[in-house]
Amino acid sequence: MSQADFGRQEIDLAEYEMPGLMMMRRVYGPSKPLEGARIAGCLPLTIETAVLIETLQELGAEVQFCSSHAFGIQDHAMAALVKKGTGVYGWKGETDEEYVWCLDQTVYFPDGKPLNMILDTGGDLTSWVHEKHPDIISGIRGISEETTAGGITLNKLLKEGKLKAPVININDSVTKCKIDNIYGTRESLVDGIKRATDVMLAGKVCVVAGYGDVGKGAAQSLRGFGARVIVTEVDPINALQAAMEGYEVLTMQEAAVKGQIFVTTTGCTKVIRSEHMLAMPDNSILCNAGFFDTEIDVKWLKENAERVNIKPQVDRFKLSNGRHIILLAEGCMVNLGCANGQSSFVMSCSFTNQVLAQMQLWTKHEEYHVGIHRLSKKLDEEVAETHLDHIGVKLTKLDEEQAKYLGVPTNGPFKPEHYRY
Ligand SMILES: NC(=O)c1ccc[n+]([C@@H]2O[C@H](COP(=O)([O-])OP(=O)(O)OC[C@H]3O[C@@H](n4cnc5c(N)ncnc54)[C@H](O)[C@@H]3O)[C@@H](O)[C@H]2O)c1
Fold it and tell me: How many angstroms separate the CA atoms of 57 and 41, rounded?
């Protein structure tokens, strides 16, 4: 059996755990609402992304993708897509220069026409097209963005007056940020740490930097294994939440001397720096679950410590003080670098939002001005609902009297926009 055939079987298997995308195919496939759309995407090239790509194609779109992360690529799944004629650009361990080359390959399709829709994560493809291909921007109907980090990038572009197309940030859907970021990470973070190190978590002191959605999932999961978890935060609300959950909340300088495993989840930069690393116990394990690889100062580590590669994505560094640091996935997202990223079911929630966002922007583009939008609460609730059957959830229905009492329609939306879940 070839690599591609192996990938094909995994894609087919993942479909079973992606009920939202299968529903999109059943409901919208026949009418081909994305006909005419040339969607260029930038996401981790995983099995789940392959199911998303094939869903967009079934809805009528032409699609080509590149990888958003050098380690977030399952080569065999991509081989299976290529065998079926889909353009995908990226390979596991690609360099920064190769990444940029791959990104640029998605801009023009084989017939010479440029993309007219973008599906992005982290904002790189969006920024690239704005900077390097401004001539094609007027033809873009919309951009859907996947993650917290991309939201930050696109908000900066908007504030500077540089954003030139409407965006739907699907990370703002509750069925994305409160599901993928929390529960996806709750499983895939430890999967990555365990595959990389086989370390026993019980009894260890684990430091989680950031107690947002990803941090909450990380902390809960590590505690579930019996680790003693310390949290660091800059936001008093999140710090209070962490304390109320029973976590110790300290600064990184205080936590550095106590921790044995460190996980960054802040979406910020230089959260673990040289002064922290020099204070850590021998053989501390460092990894990052945030989007970009700058949360741990890997550059300093590489320049100032002796590196021994243990195996792919696991390096042990000897510091000037004689102690060692074990770095996973070179400071890139550990759940992608050392495991297979988020599970299919959770990606189904995220990617159903992506499909709905692409359809909204393509078919109702006149309703979206240049700016950053979110999907309606009604659609958000629908995404959740498409995932209930698969896990045997029985939903209670409001009757007319109850709905009137609460002041909501019997079929939703059930909550005001500001409700925080
Ligand atoms: N690994 C994955 O699969 C995965 C999944 C979803 C999101 N992400 C990425 O994870 C990152 C976090 O996402 P999120 O949705 O949890 O964001 P979030 O905004 O909900 O949480 C980040 C938290 O970090 C805190 N923080 C910021 N700077 C800090 C610092 N210097 N020290 C301590 N705390 C700090 C913030 O106050 C916030 O509470 C983003 O980069 C996002 O793109 C990764």
Answer: 12
Ligand 1 neighbour 209 (Cβ under 6 A): yes
Candidate from 175, 181, 186, 344 with most ligand 1 atoms within 8 A of CB, to mutate: 181
pTM: 0.97
Q: What is the pLDDT of residues 232-278, one digit of tens each?
A: 999 999 999 999 999 999 999 999 999 999 999 999 999 999 999 99
Look up tokens 């059996």; give the residue: 1
Segment 302-314 mean pLDDT: 98
Both ends of the chain: CA-CA distance in Å? 47
Judged on CB neighbours under 10 Å (0-12, 13-18, 19+), 150 is: buried
Count the residues in the chain. Answer: 421
Query: pLDDT digits over 286-295, tens only?
Result: 999 999 999 9
Taking the C-alpha atoms of 291, 294, 295 and 301 in order, what is their torsion angle to the nearest 10 degrees? 140
Probe ligand 1: pick from 148, 188, 216, 235, max atoms within 8 Å of CB? 148
**What values do phi and psi take at 380, rounded to 5?**
-60, -45
